[in-house]
């Protein structure tokens, strides 16, 4: 992880995501997931680009299965954009940087 994209534990989800004053993009991922590894550098770049407007966090579904189930995560990577503690939009699967930026711009 980096300074801009933090791996959080299930116990930190409420404070880091649901109570955040900024929008939060949550990357539900797994260490064994190839597409998750592919999208990671894109998330790092976008974290820099959207600094101050958006927080990006990662949640390992193997370490937080109850949280993944709570939000209906069935495949990884699943990206969910939270605004004001609610899921505003979501995407499943790896996508190119331009597509992910367009997804963020359309929902922020």
From TrEMBL:
Protein name, entry field: Thioredoxin
One Pfam family recorded for the sequence: Thioredoxin
Lineage: Bacteria, Pseudomonadati, Pseudomonadota, Gammaproteobacteria, Oceanospirillales
Organism from which the protein derives: Cobetia crustatorum
Site annotation Deprotonates C-terminal active site Cys: residues: 27
GO cellular component terms given for this protein: cytosol
Sites marked Contributes to redox potential value: 34-35
One example of a Gene Ontology biological process annotation: cell redox homeostasis
Family designation: Belongs to the thioredoxin family.
Catalytic residues (positions): 33 (nucleophile), 36 (nucleophile)
Key words, A-Z: Disulfide bond, Electron transport, Redox-active center, Transport
């Amino acid at each position: 992880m980096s300074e801009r994209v933090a791996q959080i534990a299930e116990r930190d989800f409420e404070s880091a995501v649901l109570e955040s004053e900024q929008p939060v993009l949550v990357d539900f991922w797994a260490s064994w997931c190839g597409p998750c590894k592919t999208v990671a550098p894109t998330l790092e770049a976008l974290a820099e680009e959207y600094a101050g407007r958006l927080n990006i966090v990662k949640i390992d579904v193997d370490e937080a299965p109850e949280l993944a189930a709570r939000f209906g995560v069935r495949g990884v990577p699943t990206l969910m954009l939270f605004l004001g503690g609610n899921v505003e939009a979501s995407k499943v699967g790896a996508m190119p940087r331009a597509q992910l930026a367009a997804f963020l711009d359309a929902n922020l």
